[in-house]
Structure formats: structure tokens, C-alpha cells
Amino acid sequence: MTAADPRRVVEAVWRTESARIIAALARMVGDVGLAEELAQDVLVIALEQWPEDGVPQHPASWLMATAKHRAVDTLRRQSRYRQKLEEVGRATPDSHEPDLAADIDDYVGDDLLRLIFATCHPVLSTEARAALTLRLLGGLSTEEIARAYLTSESTVGQRITRAKRTLAEKKVPIELPPPAEAAARLASVLEVIYLIFNEGYAATAGADWARPALCDEALRLGRMVASLASQEPEVHGLVALMEFQASRMRARTAPDGSPVLLQDQDRRLWDRLLIRRGFEALARAEGTWGPYVLQASIAACHARASRAEETDWERVAALYQVLAHVSPSPVVELNRAVAVSYAESPQRALEIVDGLADSLAAYPLLAAVRGDLLARLGRPAEARAEFERAAQMTKNEGERALFRGRAAALA
Amino acid sequence: MRYLVLLKAAQPATPPPPELMDAIMKLGGEATAAGALLDTAGLLPSAAGARVSLQAGSLSVTDGPFTEAKEMISYALYQVGSKEEAVGWASKFLALHRDLWEGWEGDADVLKVMGPEDFGNAPTE
């Protein structure tokens, strides 16, 4: 057994505190890039001082107080000194001495929310939003983000630097969006979180663990926003959707890395804790029908079925119908067709799928669904051709093996 | 990755001070809001529980209390990005005990829950 050295203590505290510190600084200095720089300075000070002087009694308060001192110093040096200092004086506790009350009571919830609204601001590209959010709110290093996105550290570094510059140049305020913009801005935040989740969810088994770990990061960001903006049903819908999807993580790939379809998954491998959390999150959005709530409700139908045959397909089909109305897309229609094939008949589903032939011409899953429906309708030759077409179109190795397997079984 | 934090301590003679319980609730709220705390609960003294044993091929059930010097006090399940982060939450939790319950001593064992990252080419930390 070894005692943790101060450097590791700094790391431990930093992982849990950095987002809050950057958020508080961003509110004070009004600039995301400067806030991050100041926070980095504080980290360096801690790394220098703690091994020398010992770890402070209240490390988190120490970091926050030191950070705020630095921010005040910086503002003082700037010309906006007088005006800004008044704001700071109003917004922060009088005492900069670390104390327990400050450690626990320092209310930073709104700071975090302001920060994520800034890092997910629509002036930035979706890639930039994701990278900046992971960096500043997830506390991931540039290297970790690069590994997760299968790109180079310098690309991610430039993306983040440019994003911070854009926020400054466009004078994006660090504030909660005004009521007129609130819905659209929240949608942008949720979109970024779900994109991060899907980036991780798309990773294949055996891939560098940094990629699947994006799912965890997205879930944490989602849970954070859900607790800070708990009056927004769609936030709970998104969290529920991610909890349900993440619950199937262990079951969705075979040991050889090939994907396992929902109906073939060993449901004993589903994570019951995440399913329970999914239902809890969904209950908080009860009675609302936004796109995330609807998708989560569909995922809940699957979570309720302990065997694939027990799935309430009529409810799934009905939910897809509402979803197609709320947020129309050919992919939603394709999913609705699958539900209809079980709730009504494969023939009825085939009619829906055939209506999508133009809009989803290059979409491998359209061919695969069509192949499945034809096979169930007793038309093996046509089914086989569809699976082969799907195998040719997909870029995912695991999917290709799956489609080839289905085609071969129909020979 | 997930970590299970088990709090162990000698059974205290007095109930915990109410300020500590308040602070623990606040910290739990903070960890939940950070998306890190998945599940937590206190555990009753082992007198309220039992132990099922298998020895020499036969099962036996013994009612608590058990004779260990320390009892399990509570558990918490965290979803975090690193061991350091789990240690960070556990340290905050023990710091509350230090500040609000004089003389209290105990351990928080930080145990990694086996996950998909523990197979294949994942880093070991």
C-alpha cells in the first residue's frame, strides 16, 4: 500500500472540480478561452505548492478561491477594471478564505449551465461544439479527445483554439439564453450531447476504449444538464434514451466484435441499473412528446421485454408514428416499418419500405430491412439479393459480416 | 468506468451529528448533478443482517452481528473517467467526516467494478 502523492491528489481534485472552476471563471471574465487559461494557471500553482506545503484541508475550495483571486487580478489589470469589479463584488462571496461552507454551498450550477450554452453555441460547427464541450465540461485532455475521435491531437487542438476565438470574436455572452432563444439553444446543447454519445456508441468492440468512453461522458453531461435544467422534459428524454441505449452496451457486440441485433441480444447482459435510471428519467418527462422523449419511450418498450417475443410492437409502431409526425425523417419511417412488420405484417411493412426507396437509396439498412421482410414473406432469392446489396453499401466491417451471413443462410 | 466505494468504520457510540448528515446529502446532490453518482445508500449494522457460508460442502446461515472490528457503513457507486476522480469523491466524503464528526475514523475502499474497458487493449488504470 502506498500513500497517494500530492500530484495524484491534485489530479483527483482537478477531475471533479475543473468544470466548475472554468465555469465560475468564465462568468467572471466573460471569456471562455481566458477562463481556461486562468484555470490552467491555478492547476500549475497547485502542482507546485501542494507537494511543498502539503495538500490544503479543503482542496476544492482552495482551487476555487485561488482561481477567483487570479480572475480578480486579471480584471484589475484590464481597463474594464472598475465596471467589472463591481459585478464580481456582487457575484462572489466576500471571503476568499477557503471554508467548508464555501466548499459545499458555492452555487455553481448556473455557471455550468451558462458555460455549456456557450460551448454548444450555434456559431460553432458541431465538431467544434463537441470538442470544446468535452474539453471544458468533461475535463478531457486534447489527447483523449483526439483518441476518441480517431484524429490527431493537433487537429483537435486547433479546433478548440479556433472555437474559443470564434466565441470571443462573435462576442458570445456567457449567459443563459434569453427566453426567445431558449428552446433552440437547448436543442443545440442536447444535439451536441447526443452526437458525443453516438460517436462512442458507433465504436466497434476492440476499438480503443477512448471511443466507447464517450458514451459515459455524454451520459454524465446529460445527467448534469438534467439536474440543472430539470424543468425541461426533453433533457430527461435524452438522458433516458442514453441510459437505455447504454444499458445494452455489453449485449450489442459478440465476442468476435460483430454486431448483435436487438432481437438476438442476450438480455441478461443488459445493465439493470441503467435501465432503472432510464425509467426514472423518462418518468420525469411524463406526458410530453418531444423527439427525445418519444425515442426514449420506444427504447423503454424494448427494456420492458425480457424476451424479444414479449416486445409490445403495437406500442412501438404507434410511438414511431407520433415520432414521424414530430420529427419526420425517412430513417424514422424505416424504423416504423420494422415495428409494423411485427405489429401487423411483413407485407404491410414492405409497402412502407418501398415508399422510401428514393430517399434512402444509398442507406444499407434499407436494403437489409427489405431483405429481412422478403425472407419472412418466403421470397428467399430477392431477400438474398437485398442482403448482398446491403453488404456492398455498408462501410462498417461488422455490419458487412452480418449481412453476408444472412445472405449465405438464404442460399 | 465504475467504482464502488465502501465506507468501513467501527460502529460509533453516538449517532452521526445532523450537520454531517446535511453535508452528506449536499455532497450526494453535487455528485448526482455532476453525473458521477449512480447509486448510494447507507447500510444497517450487521446485527440486522446475516451471513450465508459454504464450508466443507455444506451451507450455513449465521445471523449478525459479525465479529469484525469494522462494519460496512454505506456504499456508493460512481461513474467516472478515472480512478483519481473516484478517489476525489471519496476524499470529499471523508473530509466531511473529518470536519463535522470529531474523532471519527474509518476507511473508504475504492474498488473498480469490472467493465468492458478491462478487456482487450484498454489502459490498466
Relative strand content of chain B: 25-35%
Sketch the topology of chain B as an H/E string, one letter per element.
EHEEEEHE
Radius of gyration of chain A from the CA trace?
A: 25 Å
Q: How would you name the CATH homologous superfamily of chain B?
A: Dimeric alpha+beta barrel
Distance between the termini of chain B: 10 Å
* Share of residues in helices of chain A: 55-70%
Distinct helical segment count of chain A: 20
What is the residue-mean pLDDT of chain A, rounded to a whole number? Answer: 89
How many strands of chain A? 0
- Please bin the fraction of helical residues of chain B: 25-40%
Count of helical stretches of chain B: 2
Greatest contact pair?
A-B, 41 and 32 residues
Uncertain runs of chain B: 121-125
Structural class of chain A: mainly alpha
Largest sheet of chain A, described in full? none
- Unreliable runs of chain A, pLDDT <50, ≥5 residues? 93-106
Number of beta strands of chain B: 6
Portion of residues in beta strands of chain A equals under 5%
Task: Kindly list the characteristics that best describe this protein.
heterodimer; A: 411 residues; mainly alpha; B: 125 residues; alpha+beta; Alpha-Beta Plaits; 4-stranded antiparallel β-sheet; flat; disordered C terminus
Topology record:
The complex is a heterodimer of chains A (411) and B (125).
Chain A: H1 6-29, H2 32-53, H3 59-77, H4 81-91, H5 100-105, H6 109-119, H7 126-136, H8 142-148, H9 153-169, H10 179-201, H11 213-228, H12 233-247, H13 272-284, H14 291-304, H15 313-326, H16 330-343, H17 346-354, H18 364-376, H19 380-393, H20 397-409
Helix pairs in contact in A: 1-2, 1-3, 1-6, 2-3, 3-4, 7-9, 7-10, 8-9, 10-11, 10-12, 11-12, 12-13, 12-14, 13-14, 14-15, 15-16, 16-17, 17-18, 18-19, 19-20
Chain B: E1 2-9, H1 18-33, E2 37-42, E3 50-55, E4 58-63, E5 71-79, H2 83-100, E6 106-113
Antiparallel strand pairs in B: 1-5, 1-6, 2-5, 3-4
Helix pairs in contact in B: 1-2
